[in-house]
Amino acid sequence: MTETTKTLKMTFLNGKNKKTSITLNNAVPDLEEAAVRDAMGIIAQENIFSKEEVDMYKTPQSAQYIERTVTSVFDDTESNKD
Question: Fewer CB near the terminus (10 Å): N or C of the chain?
Answer without folding.
Answer: C
